[in-house]
Write a structure and sequence with these properties.
disordered N terminus; Immunoglobulin-like; mainly beta; 3% helix
Length: 132
C-alpha cells in the first residue's frame, strides 16, 4: 500500500461553512455497504465518541462532523508524530430511496456506523373519479 493512501486527507470544504477556529479538518474514510433493506456507512473517525459527533440531514444532504480534542501526555513533549489530530467533516447527497425518518447512528471505537433504511416502494393507488 502506498504511503499516500495511508495519510489522512485534509478537507478543503466538504460543506460550505466558515470555520471559526484554526484546526485541521479531515475527510473521514468511509465504507459503504448495501443489504436488501438498508445502506450502511462505516466512517473512520479516530478520537470521536457519541458526545463529539454531529449528524445533520437538511434537504437531501447528510452531513457528518466530529470534533477531536488532542491528547497531551503529561511530562512528555512530542519529538515526532505520524498521526495528526483534527476534526472530521463529510457530506453525502441522499436519494429518494432512503427512508429519512428511520436513519440510525452509533459510534464505537472511533467508527461511526449509519444505517440508512431503504424506503418502501410506492404502491400503485387507484383514485376514484366522482361526477359533479
Amino acid at each position: 500500500m502506498a504511503d499516500k493512501e495511508m495519510q489522512k486527507r485534509e478537507a478543503s470544504s466538504p460543506v460550505e461553512t466558515e470555520r471559526t477556529k484554526s484546526v485541521k479538518v479531515f475527510i473521514p474514510r468511509v465504507d459503504i455497504c448495501e443489504t436488501q433493506d438498508a445502506i450502511v456507512l462505516l466512517a473512520d473517525m479516530p478520537g470521536v465518541d457519541d458526545k463529539s459527533v454531529d449528524i445533520t440531514l437538511e434537504k437531501n444532504v447528510l452531513t457528518l462532523s466530529g470534533k477531536v480534542t488532542p491528547v497531551a501526555r503529561e511530562g512528555y513533549r512530542a519529538a515526532y508524530a505520524e498521526y495528526e489530530a483534527g476534526d472530521y467533516e463529510r457530506a453525502f447527497t441522499l436519494s429518494d430511496e432512503i427512508d429519512r425518518d428511520r436513519i440510525e447512528a452509533s459510534v464505537k471505537d472511533g467508527v461511526l456506523k449509519l444505517t440508512l433504511p431503504k424506503a418502501e416502494p410506492v404502491k400503485l393507488r387507484k383514485i376514484s373519479v366522482k361526477a359533479s
